[in-house]
Write a structure and sequence with these properties.
With about 325 residues, the chain is α/β, with parallel strands linked by helices. The chain has helices at about 10-20, 40-55, 70-80, 100-105, 135-155, 170-185, 200-215, 230-240, 255-265, 280-290, 310-325; strands spanning about 30-35, 60-65, 85-90, 110-115, 125-130, 160-165, 190-195, 220-225, 250-255, 270-275, 300, 305. The strands form two sheets. A six-stranded parallel β-sheet has the order 2-1-3-4-5-11, with helices on both faces. The protein has a six-stranded mixed β-sheet with strand order 7-6-8-9-10-12, with helices on both faces. β9 (about 250-255), α9 (about 255-265) and β10 (about 270-275) form a beta-alpha-beta unit. Residues about 1-25 have low confidence and may be disordered.
Length: about 325
């Protein structure tokens, strides 16, 4: 929950100490990040660095340029430095599953965060998966949309277009499936188009532009995006096209301040919280394991839904947004 730029100096210091080979009796934790070309990922890395300092561990890390093969290679590089544990946010579940076997062979405990791999947490050296329940939050968002459409039209009906996250990631699969689970009981609510925007704002804009060309005014009721960055890109496309009927009809996932601001301003209908704050839970799980304590194999962190459709929701959302402003929180 810290500013993106707040720990740049710490990042440089950590890199320098690692390169210089400074000796330390503190635990050494390695972290494999998907990429550093997205604000959500930058915020996650900053959170890991922050909690490493607070909890008294040394940290080495690298990023995988959003490529599964590169991430496997870079994980091997990290493991060769014989860390006491590895934290990984995997790019893809199946492609990064071999990391579990690599950690088993090296005797190095593994914690995955945000996204999972195919192996079962709690087996071998794969001690824990820490995330938020994407299926549950997507299901709750789908139920929220269904109720909104009922309140709007007096019946459960409407057309939805969807912009997915990165293809093959566990988060994408879960946000895709959970949303549909909520809508199964409403046959007149249809998802009429779905396409990946890969998690990026510019791609979200492009996909939404395509949808606006394909579907004229009056044929889309809700825009569902798997991330705030894509949601903000879709909103940009909607404004540029003058499709004002879709303002206030977007729902998305993450909890970025800019997205919550659009909820307060009536441009987004709702944002489901999936802020990238996994550092405290991940490092505490590793320290507990190293101390010989039991660690929960699956740890799901809390999530919230931000909206303005009820007095309670509006007060909660407005108060949280004001807190983000006061504390200069990006997520």
């Amino acid at each position: 929950m810290r500013r993106i730029s707040a720990v740049l100096l710490v990042l440089l210091l950590v890199s320098f100490m690692s390169a210089a080979g400074f000796a330390s009796d503190r635990p050494l934790i390695a972290f494999s990040q998907v990429a550093m070309n997205h604000p959500w990922r930058i915020a996650m890395t900053n959170d890991i660095v922050y909690w490493a300092e607070v909890l008294g561990v040394d940290l080495i890390w690298n990023e995988a340029e959003a490529d599964a093969a590169i991430q496997l290679t870079k994980v091997r590089d990290l493991l060769l430095q014989e860390p006491d544990a590895l934290i990984m946010s995997p790019f893809q579940a199946t492609a990064l599953d071999p990391v579990k076997e690599m950690c088993d062979e090296a005797g190095i405990p593994l914690v995955t965060i945000d996204r999972s791999i195919d192996s079962e947490p709690g087996t071998g050296m794969y001690i824990s998966f820490i995330g938020k329940d994407n299926t549950k939050l997507a299901r709750e968002l789908g139920e929220f949309v269904a109720n909104y459409l009922y309140e709007t039209y007096g019946e459960y009906k409407g057309n939805i277009v969807e912009i997915q996250e990165a293809v093959g990631s566990s988060a994408t699969i879960e946000r895709y499936n959970g949303f549909r689970e909520a809508l199964e009981q409403y046959p007149d609510i249809q998802i009429i188009a779905t396409q990946s925007g890969h998690g990026y704002r510019v791609e979200g804009t492009k996909v939404m532009e395509n949808y606006l060309e394909r579907f004229p005014a009056g044929t889309i009721d809700i825009v569902y995006t798997h991330s705030d960055e894509m949601g903000l890109g879709a909103l940009q496309a909607i404004k540029a096209a003058g499709r004002t009927e879709l303002i206030g009809r977007l729902v998305t996932v993450d909890g970025q301040r800019a997205a919550i601001e659009t909820v307060v301003n009536g441009e987004h209908l709702a944002v489901s919280d999936y802020a990238p704050h996994f550092g405290e839970a991940a490092i505490k799980a590793i320290l507990a394991y190293l101390a010989g304590e039991e660690v929960e194999p699956v740890q799901m962190l809390d999530s919230n839904l931000y909206h303005m459709t009820t007095d309670e929701g509006a007060n909660f959302t407005r108060n949280y947004y004001n807190r983000m402003l006061a504390e200069d929180l990006f997520y």
